Structures are given as C-alpha cells and as structure tokens.
UniProtKB/TrEMBL annotation:
<keyword id="KW-0521">NADP</keyword>
<comment type="function">
    <text>Involved in the biosynthesis of the chorismate, which leads to the biosynthesis of aromatic amino acids. Catalyzes the reversible NADPH linked reduction of 3-dehydroshikimate (DHSA) to yield shikimate (SA).</text>
</comment>
<keyword id="KW-0057">Aromatic amino acid biosynthesis</keyword>
<dbReference type="Pfam" id="PF08501">
    <property type="entry name" value="Shikimate_dh_N"/>
</dbReference>
<feature type="binding site">
    <location>
        <position position="93"/>
    </location>
    <ligand>
        <name>shikimate</name>
    </ligand>
</feature>
<feature type="binding site">
    <location>
        <position position="233"/>
    </location>
    <ligand>
        <name>NADP(+)</name>
    </ligand>
</feature>
<dbReference type="GO" id="GO:0004764">
    <property type="term" value="F:shikimate 3-dehydrogenase (NADP+) activity"/>
</dbReference>
<dbReference type="InterPro" id="IPR006151">
    <property type="entry name" value="Shikm_DH/Glu-tRNA_Rdtase"/>
</dbReference>
<feature type="active site" description="Proton acceptor">
    <location>
        <position position="72"/>
    </location>
</feature>
<dbReference type="InterPro" id="IPR013708">
    <property type="entry name" value="Shikimate_DH-bd_N"/>
</dbReference>
<feature type="domain" description="Shikimate dehydrogenase substrate binding N-terminal">
    <location>
        <begin position="13"/>
        <end position="95"/>
    </location>
</feature>
<comment type="similarity">
    <text>Belongs to the shikimate dehydrogenase family.</text>
</comment>
<feature type="binding site">
    <location>
        <position position="264"/>
    </location>
    <ligand>
        <name>shikimate</name>
    </ligand>
</feature>
<feature type="domain" description="Quinate/shikimate 5-dehydrogenase/glutamyl-tRNA reductase">
    <location>
        <begin position="117"/>
        <end position="206"/>
    </location>
</feature>
<feature type="binding site">
    <location>
        <position position="235"/>
    </location>
    <ligand>
        <name>shikimate</name>
    </ligand>
</feature>
<dbReference type="InterPro" id="IPR041121">
    <property type="entry name" value="SDH_C"/>
</dbReference>
<dbReference type="Pfam" id="PF18317">
    <property type="entry name" value="SDH_C"/>
</dbReference>
Length: 293
C-alpha cells in the first residue's frame, strides 16, 4: 500500500458483519492497477452507528461508500438524493459524495443486467421470471424493467417477502414500460407455466447455497426448455443444484451469480472514479484471496 499518501481519498463499506467481504480486495486491486489514489476499507457499522457513519462520509470528505445489511434501507433518510434504482427498490448499496451532496444508488440490478449483456443476452424486450423478492430479486426486477424487459413475473413463497414482490411489481408498472405481475411459489402449476413462458429465469432465493446447498426449486429437468436463459444469483458454490438440473435438461445458457457480484462492484467503481474496473485482474485477485481461505 505504498501508494497511500496525504491525498488519498477514502471509500468505505458500512455493514455488519462485514469483515468477510471481497469488496476491499476488488476495489483496492482496481485502484492499484489504474494508479488511482483511493483506498477502500470495510467498517463494522450496524444500525445504531449508521447516522455517525454517514456523518463520517461528509466530515472525512470520503468519495462514498458501499452499504450492506442491515443498512440498505435505513440509510435512505440520511442521504440527500436517490437515483431511480434506489427509489424503485427502496434500498441503497452505493453512496456517492459530490461536494457534500450524498446520492444513493443500487448497483446490484445493474450488475445483473451488465453481466448478462457480457454473456450475450440483453434483457430488452424479454419475458422474465424472477423467483425471490429480497436483496437480490428486487433490484434485478427493477433494473430489468428500467432496461426494457417487456414482461416480468415475480414469484415468492408465502412469507414476509411476498408483499415486497407485490410492491416492486406495482412500482415497475408505474415507473417503467414493463408489465409486471406476481404469483405465489406454492402454485406449482403457475411456476411450471411461467418457466415455459419465460425467456430468462432468475433464481434469487439463495436455495442452492448453505444451508440449502444441494437443493433446488426445480428438480424435474422436463420443466426447463433448452433455450431458456437461467441465472442463479448464488455464487458459492459455483455450480448449484439448479444449474445441474438445467444441464441435464440440455439448457445451454446457465450462469451463477459471480459475474453479477463483480459487475455490481464495477458499477459502483465507475460512479466513484468515472473509470472502468479492470475486471479480469479483479477476478484473478479474488480467486487468489479465495484460495487463502
Ligand atoms: P433475502 O433474504 O433478502 O431474500 C431471499 C428471497 O428468497 C426472499 O424473497 C425469500 O422469500 C426467498 N426464499 C428464501 N428461502 C426460500 C426457499 N427455501 N424457497 C423459496 N423461496 C425462498 O436474500 P438476498 O439478499 O436476496 O439473497 C438471495 C441470494 O442471492 C443469496 O444466495 C445471495 O447470496 C445471492 N445474492 C447474490 C448477489 C450477487 O451479486 N450475485 C447479490 C445479492 C445476493
């Protein structure tokens, strides 16, 4: 870290617990590679400390911060402005400080859309089925609508997130040209029909990662058509049960959530620095860090 000097600009990550995060590796690798005089540090900040944390962004003249649980919604009243991604999702994962004016963004959805684009799939004009309306599913639904998806069906099981699925569907119908609707996952026939209808299927439930590793919401390969694009937001493990079922069904385009994770960071990086993140280098550094664990 010899590049740190009196001019170094600080960017934070405020969440709790957060020490396991890959984001410091991601951003500091990119700053170093591009010779940018920034440093990215993680801070254990819970709900009680959040107001002071935001004050620190202003006092220390930080360029901004990432925000994760439990602060993604709670930070909103402390900010000056919200980008449309944050307005539609009611959540913020990136704060940008422009001369004391703090703007909140959500880059998870951008990360998803950009990763799919890199893999050769544009959401514009597509019919999408998204299962799960939490921290991943909501921004994916919102950004897909912003980027021109034609129809979005959002499914959730009957738990506390069902209301969130309905709220984001309403917001999409009000704020974008996409048509959004919801159904409950307990309605197996509706789920099967939606899989047959969709161009892109996103599993944003976390089923397939610990403690539900080895499990999937779709276990019968005959439910999946070969030309469906399947995106599982899980990235640990790299191959989930859903991805295995999809391979058995002969589905060609099947992806985990690693690219989305990197691209949401790249989108935040661009907001802070105006520069493109050197993604290949960053992925290499993350893989090396992974091996150390
Ligand atoms: P969350 O707790 O906010 O939401 C989980 C959603 O899944 C809810 O809608 C819930 O109703 C549903 N759900 C949970 N268990 C279920 C089950 N057994 N059956 C059916 N539905 C179920 O979580 P989140 O933050 O949205 O994370 C979801 C997954 O997405 C996790 O695996 C997480 O690691 C991943 N994620 C990936 C990225 C990325 O960049 N790739 C970003 C955020 C989250």
């Amino acid at each position: 870290m010899t590049r740190i000097d009196g001019h170094t600009i600080l960017i934070g990550l405020m969440a709790y617990p957060i020490r396991h995060s890959m984001s410091p590796t991601m951003h500091n690798t990119a700053f170093e590679a591009l010779n940018l005089n920034y440093a990215y540090l993680a801070f254990d900040i819970d709900g009680h400390q959040l107001a002071d944390g935001v004050k620190a962004i202003r006092t220390l003249d930080m360029r901004g911060s990432n925000v994760s649980m439990p602060n993604k919604q709670a930070i909103i009243p402390h900010l000056d402005k919200l980008d449309i991604s944050a307005k539609m999702t009611g959540a913020v994962n990136t704060v940008v400080n422009d001369d004391g004016v703090l703007t909140g963004y959500t880059t998870d959805g951008v990360g998803f859309v950009n990763d799919l684009k890199k893999k050769g799939h544009d959401v514009a004009g597509k019919k999408m089925l998204i299962v799960g309306a939490g921290g991943a599913g909501i921004p994916i639904a919102a950004q897909s609508a912003i980027e021109g998806a034609s129809d979005i069906r959002i499914a959730n099981r009957k738990d506390g997130h069902l209301k969130k699925a309905e709220e984001i569907a309403d917001s999409i119908n009000e704020n974008s040209g996409a048509v959004a609707s919801t159904f409950t996952l307990e309605d197996g026939e509706a789920f099967k029909a939606a899989l047959a209808w969709a161009d892109i299927y996103v599993d944003a439930t976390g089923v397939g990662m610990k403690p539900l590793e080895g499990k999937a919401l779709v276990n019968d390969p005959s439910w999946l058509k070969e030309d469906l694009v399947i995106y599982d937001t899980v990235y640990a493990p790299r191959t989930t049960k859903l991805m295995e079922v999809a391979k058995k069904a002969g589905v060609k385009n099947v992806y985990n959530g690693l690219g989305m994770m990197v691209e949401q960071g790249a989108a935040a990086f661009k907001l802070w620095t105006g520069q493109e993140m050197p993604i290949d280098l960053v992925e290499q550094a993350m893989a090396e860090k992974d091996k150390e664990k």
